[in-house]
Amino acid sequence: MPLARRLQNVETSAIRELFKLLGKPGIISFAGGFPDSAMFDVEGLRQASAKALAEEPGGALQYGATEGYEPLRTELAAFMRAKGVRDIGPEGLVVTTGSQQALDLLGKTLVDPGDKVIVEGPTFLATIQCFRLYGAEVISAPIDAHGVQTDSLEQLMAQHRPKFVYLIPTFGNPSGALLGLERRRKVLELAVKYQTLVVEDDPYGDLYFGEAPPPSILALTNEVPGSRELVVHCGSLSKVLSPGLRVGWLIAPHELLGKAVMCKQFSDAHTSTFAQATAAQYLKSGRMPGTLRQVRRAYAQRAQAMGDALQRELGDAIEFTQPRGGLFFWARLTGAGGRIQDAGEFARRAIEQGVAFVPGAPFFATEPDASALRLSFATADVGRIDEGMARLKKAL
User: Fold this and answer.
1) Beta strand spans in the chain (E)
2) DSSP bridge pairs for 208
3) Torsion angle defined by CA atoms of residues 144, 149, 152 and 158, in that order, rounded to the nearest 10 degrees
4) 131-140 tens-digit pLDDT
């Protein structure tokens, strides 16, 4: 087939390939990056969809505006204002088919072949693949438990003059890291200094386990003069309500937002109006705060159980930072006592013991760490977490 040359820049997801190995009966999987379907508010969504059909069936079932269903845009703007984004109205955002479509639209509207884009190392694998598909040279900025290291980020920005910087500052996938308040302000100062766009991806920010995280980078733009027009924000209902709705949103400067709408028009005309109308009714119902309290409690319990079990079963063979939110543990094999340090080999041994996780190397755009791994606690109860960690111990 005469395929497009740009496909040479991307490979099949290593995570998708790993999933092919998970058909073994009785396997305990910490590999997925998705929420627990047992915690979906099925009754609330049933009521919301019924109300959408009863109150405005034409709006829910007919073609709609590419920008999004107006009642949903109104609800999402209110949702963002409640999180400190003061100057947002429905006209300031576009509804996307999940936040991943927002990333694709940014690739289409911003990236020319050869452009440089800085991401965290590690970062969301699909982001690396998406930006490379459009011809970007993707560069990793180092992170620690407190997010991107801003001194290193500035050095990379000065050296490479990237088209934009992409960050997941709040409980990132795969790192689970939380970017501190001062570093968030520093990121905005760097955006102004180098006149460089910062893309903030925030699908996990509402999944915190105690104290709320700092305000989003977007919300902090009112503290850093000149930064508001240099920040793009991607949001999603997938991790907090339902991935199946495929409802996300993009907030961006006016010119960029207009171009994104144009490209979305070519791609899918609009996100499902039925899904949008259902999401609008759900947000309007006032059930979201209760849903968030429930999932936060459950994930916090599982995260604590996983941290305790990792420490108990693997000891000094592994090092990690206990996450304060999100869905993931990011860990490194230390090789202590001559034990295994290659996460890819460890993953193969773990599958033989009936447990799965994702090796960390594919999450790096450059300089992969072969000792790193990602484990998700979202879909396993405490009993399965304990059993899975015991199996991991046997795989060491």
Assistant:
1) 28-29, 93-97, 116-121, 137-144, 147-148, 164-167, 197-201, 231-236, 247-251, 318-320, 328-333, 355-356, 358-359, 372-376
2) 325
3) 140
4) 999 999 999 9
> Following DSSP, what letter does each residue of 164-215 receive, concatenated?
EEEE--BS-TTT--B--HHHHHHHHHHHHHHT-EEEEE-SSTT-BSSSPPPP
Q: Give the list of residues 6+ apart from residue 180 with CB closer than 8 angstroms, or none.
A: 146, 147, 214
pLDDT 10s digits, 229-274: 999 999 999 999 999 999 999 999 999 999 999 999 999 999 999 9
Distance of CA 98 to the CA centre of its chain: 11
Query: Distance (Å, rounded) from C-alpha 44 to C-alpha 47?
Result: 5
The strands making up 197-201's β-sheet, listed across from edge to edge, are 93-97, 247-251, 231-236, 197-201, 164-167, 116-121, 137-144, 147-148
- The CA distance from 146 to 169, in Å, is 9
In sequence order, which residues have a C-beta less than 8 Å from that of residue 60 and are 6 or more positions away? 52, 53, 273, 274, 277, 278
> Reduced to 3 states, what is the DSSP secondary structure of residue 96?
strand
